[in-house]
Amino acid sequence: RPQAMTARPGAAMPDLAPATLTPLADSGDIDFGRYHALIIGNDAYRHIQPLKTAVDDATRLEQILRASYGFETQLLRNADRDQIVSALADYRRRLQPTDNLLIYYAGHGWVDEQADEGYWLPVDAGADDPARWLSNATLTTTLRAIPARHILVIADSCFSGKLTRGVNVQLRTHDYLRRLVSKKARTALTSGGLEPVLDSGGKGNHSVFASALFDALEGNTGIVDTSQLFNVIRREVALAADQFPEYGDIRRAGHDGGDFVFVRRKR
Hints:
The structure is a single chain. By secondary structure, the protein is of the alpha/beta class. The chain has helices spanning 54-69, 81-94, 136-145, 176-182, 208-219, 226-240; strands at 35-41, 72-77, 100-106, 108-112, 117-121, 134-135, 150-156, 164-166, 185-190, 223-225, 246-250, 261-263. α1 packs parallel to α5 (208-219) and α5 (208-219) packs across α6 (226-240).
């Protein structure tokens, strides 16, 4: 999440046709479960270049999820590795199989190409010492163990595409929403693939990706799945910057064909 960026060499241009949010039909008898969010924004790095907008992005998202969607939220500003791991362990202890968990991370990221591994960099991370880095493997193992039905990771960091693989498109039949809610989901929505991403450029003091995410969540008037949100977010980000958001299931985390569903509170 540097101040400047370059596009990934050979990156394919995504489909930028206009996308709209179409609320899913709810029969009224679906139990969506409780919604929780762990929201992490890291600007004040101790050993590497600080960032500008991650804390503001995290703070704004926490407000939207709590006020408009009824999430029980936990906001970590400038979190070190121990704080992040401890928070994840707490969700493992107390969440139930009908719960939903959203994990948002805005901060530095890195990929070790030789080891084929991606990392989040907490504020106590060093540039050349991985001892305080948080690997995708550690995150994946933790997500597999958390008993929540649906877990969505939203990562606004460099090289975050290492988390995902392609997601299968599902036809929206009459029982589509019921199937999404009933099946386990472990998915990730990332601000880019294997390239650096912008730490600015959005509305207000927000990143391009965060700004598009907020627009999509605030534009929803009912019930939408993350696949729909992704189509809207991808277009807005790709038109504004040389980065292409990605969405897919998290490798080896226990995904079973569901999707994270956002249920807007009635106004």
